[in-house]
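QA checklist item 7 of 12: single-chain prediction sanity check.
[x] sequence parsed
[x] length recorded as 243
[x] structure emitted
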Amino acid sequence: MARLAHLLVLLLAAGCASTGVEAPPTAPPATAGPSLAVHWVRDSAEHHAALVQAYALAGERVGELAAEREAGTWAVALDADETVISNSLFQKELEVSGGRFSQERWQAWARRREATALPGARAFLERVHDLGGRIVIVTNRDEAICPDTEANFRDLGLPYDAMLCRRGESRKEPRWEQVVSGTAVPGLPPLEIVMWLGDNIQDFPDLGQDLRFEPDAAFADFGRKYVVIPNPMYGSWTSNPAN
């Protein structure tokens, strides 16, 4: 029996050698790379075009709104991240390294001041000033990194009149109310906010992800006083159940 078993092993080995069949080698781990969302944001013509388009249309609309108001009495409120500045390099580095998002990583990124201006943003901000409006950046970057964020804006030549970072809660409504009441920052008078721009539905007053269940009529303010900047990388939408 031992000789028979040995013979069978030899025959099987010979058969594998003659047919060239081998067990597949262990594949090396795949090189981590950015997601399609990050790839689209960083490398597609469509993303660039969508941003230029959004800001061009916003510029036309804000011109109409400014014509109905006295200079110095109104403002535009904008989010910062993925609305005026891009953190796609941070997202790419995070994904390539296989790391997880953390406040420590995020704050380290902010202190690098390497966010870039999104296409169309600076021209729009300059137009708001030319028309007599004020620019208020309302961001959920916390106050610890607000100075670095302001410096990043200045380095990029992005004009603004006030930057309101997060203190405690992330809801932006209280900060918008401060702009309207004139209590946001010293020297900024009470202002009517005529337009909001952001990449998250929560960048617009009293709106949330439940809006997606509403009819088209519920979106009537978009394109008139609300302008969405596309961001497929992250946002409140990621918590929605997949349909």
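[x] summary fact logged: DSSP finds eight helices and seven strands in the chain.
[ ] second reviewer sign-off
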